[in-house]
UniProtKB/TrEMBL annotation:
SUPFAM superfamilies hit by this protein: OMPA-like
Keyword terms, alphabetized: Signal
Signal sequence range: 1-18
DNA repair as UniProt keyword: no
Classification via Gene3D superfamilies: 2.40.160.20
InterPro entries, per database record: Beta-barrel_OMP, OMP/PagP_B-barrel, OMP_myx_plus_Proteobacteria
Protein known as: Outer membrane beta-barrel domain-containing protein
All copies of domain Outer membrane protein beta-barrel, residue ranges: 63-224
Organism: Bdellovibrio bacteriovorus
Lineage: Bacteria, Pseudomonadati, Bdellovibrionota, Bdellovibrionia, Bdellovibrionales
Amino acid sequence: MLKKSLLMFILMTSQAFAQSTDSKPAAERGSDKLDIKKLEQKYWAAKDDDFSVVQNRRYVKAERFYLTASTGIPFNDPYSTGSIFGGSFGYFFNERWGVEANYNSASMSDNDAVKQFVDTYGAIPNHNVYKSSYYLSGIWVPFYAKMSVLDRSIIYFDMGLSVGAGNLSYEITQAEGNISKSAFSYKVGIFQQIFFSEHFAIRADLINTWSTQDKMKYYAPNTNVGGTNTGGGARDLGSETINDTSLMIGLTYWH
């Protein structure tokens, strides 16, 4: 009898609790759905609107030295053709910023247009020939990415900008003998490198340089015009700003 009374008490208590719960409004009982707006208001402050893209880097540049050996061609020289060989040594403070020192040496010769001009007129066109240069540059790398190759492998590459200043050596070509000179020069380059291991990468550079170079002296003949002797000798033709563009491909070792 006691067990029966106790069972009846439990059933009546459970029923009363269920009725009490059902009588509450839906807002008080809560909902199974997650209220995103309340979470945003509580945990997402206005200062959190500014965020960065986060990605893992398999091959890092920060606090590493590198050495590059490269070769290339002049891109816009109207008088000369040949090859350029160079070397670069640099260091990255972090993934974005670095410094670089580089030296380039050229092996140039007259192109077909100059040779034809000499054969036809027996004279050398007024032009300078690029010989070598060295620069100290600052480097900024704003782009880093991964790319799938035929869904079989992933390559890692970055693209950056280099701005620097240095010295450019050139040769003034003239019939009386070539003259070697040098001038202050500055450069702006765009480069891209593709990493294929922790220590090696392929690098391509498109380099623009500007320098103010002396022009070839003009040796005028001794002539008589209207009874006046004009005199002969050298005539200074002044100087001009020369833009040299080159495309370089090289192999980089990262230490």
